[in-house]
Amino acid sequence: MPRLLGVDIPREKRIEAALPYIYGIGPLTARKILKAAKIDFSKRAKDLSDEEIALLTSIIQKNYRTEGDLRREVNQNIKRLIDIGTYRGLRHRKGLPARGQRTRTNARTRKGKKKNIGIMVKAAAA
Question: Is 108 among the domain residues?
Answer without folding.
Answer: no
